[in-house]
Each structure stands twice: as C-alpha cells, then as structure tokens.
Amino acid sequence: MGEVSIPSGAVELQGILEAPAGALGVVVFSHGSGSGRFSTRNRFVAGELRKAGIATLLLDLLTEEEDRVYENRFDIPLLTERLGDAVRFAGRQAGTRGLPVGLFGASTGAASALRVAASMPHEVRAVVSRGGRPDLAGRTALQAVKAPTLLIVGAADEGVIELNEAARDALAHCERQLVLVPRATHLFEEPGTLEEVARLAAAWFGRYLAPTPASAGPRATRR
Predict the structure, then answer these.
(1) Which residues contact 103 (CB under 8 A, 6 or more apart)?
(2) Which secondary structure element, helix H or strand E, spans residue 58, and what is its range?
(3) Helices and strands (DSSP H and E) totals, the chain
(4) Which residues pair with 153 in a beta bridge?
(5) DSSP annotation of 149
(6) Which domains does the chain have, with CATH numbers?
(7) Rounded to the nearest 5°, which phi and psi values hold at 18?
(8) What is the per-residue pLDDT across 40-94, written as a single tens digit (0 to 9) for each?
(9) What's the rounded Cα separation, in Å, for the pair 186 and 93?
C-alpha cells in the first residue's frame, strides 16, 4: 500500500493508504478547504492513529485542476460523493477489506464526513471532527447520523464553538460529544493542542471501531 488512485466518476483521486498489521479499523480523512493528502496536521493525526492500530486513508477530494476553482472547495454534495467513493474503495483493498470505517473531518471536511455517515450508516461506525463546520452538513443530514460523533474544537476558536454546539444538539440520534481543547485556536497550532486532538481521536476510534463481543474474532484477539 502507499500511494493509491481512487476512481470517482470521471476522475481519479490521489490518496495515501497505510495499514498497520492487524488493524482494527480504517479511518478515511475528509480535509478542509484548500487542503489534501499532504496536510501536515492531518498527516500527524493519521500517524498517531496508525500507532494505535488503525489504518488511514488520506486523499485529495478534488483534482489539482478542480482545486483551482475556489467554489469547488465548498461544494459539499460533490465532496460527499467523492468521500463516499473513498470509503467504498477502502472496503475493497487487501489490507482494509472488511474493516469497520471511521471518518475524520477537518474544518469544512466535517460536513462531507457527516453527510457520508448519514448516507452510509452500515459502513461508517464513528466520526471525529477537528475544528469542523458540521453545520454545513445541514440539519437533515445531522439528524440522520447514527455513528458516534466526536466534535473537537479549540477553546479559543470563537464562532466555531457555537456552530458545533448547535450541530451537537442536532445530532439527536447518535452518541455525540463536544470537547474544547484549552488554548487552541482554529488550526490547533498552539504547543500540545494537535497532540491532544490525536489522543482524543485515537481513543474515540479505538472505542467504536473495535469489534463488539458478539462479533469479535481472530482480529479482536490481536488488539
């Protein structure tokens, strides 16, 4: 595994798929506007997830040409379609086939992550949002989400906190939690804040992607 090409409609999306031995799940990343598979922050979080035994798929939801059109970065229906194709792609690969899926959405990417969770309830088992705009998913999608959802927001990210509080309340049919990271602003650039995001995400995915006792098999014994 490593660099992969993900078919989506008429385009091929570029991604990086990495899976530790005996992975308990796979997390697909939905990046924020203007970001992609080389995002420094998301690559750090992905690395920490792999240390926790979770496979990761980082990808560009837009081609280079599409990303030059600013409006495409906020085309939530298009990004949702692309992210759904990435989830299906991960489910077909040798190292991640059959693994429970989690979604990690950053900034505007949280909206497409939550829409995919709403439309693919049997595939998506958990969602984490970092400094996200879950409100952009729309109230109908939020109310349809069944996957446990963790909303991580910087305690100094004014305005975004209120949007996440409203989204948390709209997530009425799933377990959900809002965590404020002390001192953190929108990009979690303050010392130790991104590490806290990774810790929270790994704990959430570790809890909800792990096999339940009824479904535990050989993979669970390797945890």
Answers:
(1) 27, 28, 29, 30, 83, 87, 113, 114, 116, 117, 124, 126, 127, 128, 147
(2) strand 55-59
(3) 8, 8
(4) 180
(5) E
(6) 2-210 (3.40.50.1820)
(7) -135, 135
(8) 999 999 999 999 999 999 999 998 888 888 888 889 999 999 999 999 999 999 9
(9) 34
